[in-house]
Amino acid sequence: GGERPEAAEAGPGHEDFRPRIVPYYRDPSKPYKKVLRTRYIQTELGFHERLFVAVLTSKATVNTLAVAVNKTVAHHFPRLLYFTGLRSAKVPHGMVLVAHGDERPIWLMYETMHYIHQHFGSDYDWFYIMQDDTYAQAEQVKALVTHLSINQDVYLGRAEEFIGGDEQARYCHGGFGYLISRSLLLKLHPHLDSCRNEILSVRPDEWLGRCIIDFLGITCVSQLQGQHYHTYELAKNTELEKEEEEGFQAALAVHPVSDMTLMYRLHKHFSRIQLDKAYQEIQDLQMQIRNLTALTPAGEAGVTWPVGINAPFLPKSRFEVISWDYFTEQHLFSCPDGSPKCELSGASKTDVSEIIESAVEQLNSRYQPLLRFSKRQLLNGYRRFDPTRGMEYTLDLLLEAVTQKGHSHVLAKRVSLVRPLSKVEIIPMPYVTEATRVQLVLPLTVQDLDFVANFLDMFAMNTLDTHDNALLTLLFIYHPYDAQRVGQVDVFAGVKAMVGELEKRYAEVKIPWISVKTEVPSQVKLMDIVSKKHPVDTLFFLASVWTEINMEFLNRCRMNTISNWQVFFPVHFQEFNPALVYRGEQTASSTTDFLRDGHFDRHSFAEACFYNSDYMTARTKLAADILDQDEVLESMEVFDVFLHYSGLHLFRAVEPGLVQKYTLRSCNPRLSEELYHRCMLSNLEGLASRSHLAMALFEQEQANST
Q1: Which CATH class is domain 43-230?
Q2: Are 117 and 189 in contact (CB under 8 A)?
Q3: Domain with CATH 3.90.550.50 in the chain
Q4: Which end of the chain lies in a sparser environment, N or C, as judged by fewer CB atoms within 10 Å?
Q5: What's this model's pTM, rounded to 2 decimal places?
C-alpha cells in the first residue's frame, strides 16, 4: 500500500477537526488532589444550550404585546426572558420578567446586554434579541442557528444604514430581531461601559450596532454561511389572508405588530403554512416508502397501513394478543374499575368524538364532490392501544351520503383509524441522589407479633450490617383492652426485648417506638402521629411487618421519591400459598423463578415512600376539606391523601425488590367497607394462580370420587 497522505496544514480557513488525544500528566512534586466530578456529563464536556431569547418590552406593553409573544412563541424556545425598564404593578402569569429600573431605551439595552452576559454568557451558544412588537417564527429561528457555525463572531439580522452615514457599516434593526453569537457577546462585554459613555444615539439598536462596529469592527449582515435572515415589514391595515408575497411567506420575523389580535392572526397564518409543509412532506415520504417497498423481497405486500407508521404488533402466543375495547357514543364496555359497562366521559368521550369527526372528514375529503357524507349514528366502535404504533380504532358508521344532484342514501361503512404515537418527550425531573436517609415506619398490631422477628432480622442484616443510611421507628398499636392491662401484661414486651438486643449488638443504633391506643388503626391517623415527631425534610418509608427490607429497594425508594414533585407507592410481589402451589413437592421457591410462584399485589397500598413536607401539605388540605371528621379518616389510606389532596406525581410501579412470603392477613372489619373488601381480595388472589387452584380442585374431586 501507498504512504498515508499528510494532513493539510491547518490555517485560518482550514481548521483541522481531527480529534487529538491529550496525554495525562501529573506533576510528581505536587500532592495528589481528588478530582471533583460534575453532576452532569454535559457540564464536564463543556456543552452549551443552543439558544437564549431576550424580549425587550415596556411597562405600557408588558400586559398586552408581551403576553401575545408569550402565548405564541415562548413554548417553542428553550429559554425566554422579558426585559423592561419599570415593572408594572401586575406581572402576567408564567413570564420571567427582569426590570432594570429605568425606561431610557439606551440604558435598557446596556443593562440587558450586561445581564445576559453575566447570567447566561457561559451557558448558551446563541442569543436572539427581539422586541415585543415583533412576530418571530420560533421554529425557523431555531432551525437557523443549527445551520450556523458557533466559532464565528455573528451579528445577524436585517441590516440597516446608519442615520446620516454613507459608510459601508450596517446595524441590525431591533424591530426584526437579531442574532448574536456567544463569542461576539464575550468580546463585546468589556466595551459596554465605554459605549454607554461615548456613543450618543436615540435608537438602542443603532447604539448597539455602533458599539459593535467601533470596538470590534463587525458589521450586521443579513446572510451568513448560506443562511438568509428573511424579514417582512408589515404595512398598516394589511390583510394577511391576501398577502401572497414570497417575502412574507418566507419571513423569519415580521414587524411592526401593532396589537395582540394581529400577533395571534400572524401566528395562525404561519402555523398553517408550517402545517401544510409538514403534510406535504409526509405525503412525499409515503410515496417514497411505497416506491422503495415495491423493490424489497416482500414486494408491495410489505407496505403496512398507514404508510410510514410501524406495523401492528404480531402476538407470538394467545397470551400476547391485545384485546379490543368495545364502545358506543354513550358507553364504554371495558371500564377502569372492572365493571362491565360505564358511561363514556372525560378524555374518553372527547377521544371518541374526535375520531368519529375525523372519520367523516376523511371520507368527505376522499369522495367529494361526488358524494358528501354526514354521520347518522355510530353502530359499533372498537379501540385498542398497540404500544408499537399507538391507538387503533375500528368504527361501524351509519352514514347519509348525498350525491351532487341531491339524492341521498343511507349506508353502513366500516372504517379503520390510527392515532399514532407522536414524538416521545423526556420529562425533566429534579436531581436526586442515593445518599438520602430513609426513615422506616413500621405499624404493629397484636396480630403481627409472629412476623416481627423476621422483619427485624432482615432489617439488621440488610441495613445495619451494611451501614445503610436508614433508621427504624416502631409504632405499637394497642387495643384499648390491652392498653388498660399494660402494667400487668404488655403484649409488645417480646418485641421491646428484641429491640433491646439489637441496640446492644449495634451500639450506635437507636430504635425508638411510639405507643398508640386505638380500635381502628387508620393509616392516616397513625401517620399524623409519626409526622409530628420528625423533621419536615424526612423521607419516610411506610412498611408492613411482612416487608423484607433490602438495600436495592431502599435505593429505589430514594430515587423515585422527589420532594415537592413525586411520591412512590411500590406494588410488592406476594408469594402464593406453598401448600397449594407445591403440594409437598418442594418447600421454597428458588430466586430464579420466584415470579412464577406469586403475583404483584395491586390491592395493597401498605408500602409507601414520601417526604414529610409533602405529607404535611396534603394533610393540611385534607383537614380543611373534612373538618376533622374521624370517620372519613378511617376510610382513607395515605395513598388517598396524596391522590386527592396533593398536586404531586403518584408513581405506582411493580417492585421486584419487595418480596413477601405467603401469610393469611387479618382484615380489620372496623375499617371502611372498601378497605376491608380490598384486604379480602388481596388474601383471596394471593392463594394461588388459576392453574394451581384448578389443579387443587381437580385433585379434591378425584379424591372425593374414589
Answers
A1: alpha beta
A2: yes
A3: 43-230
A4: N
A5: 0.61
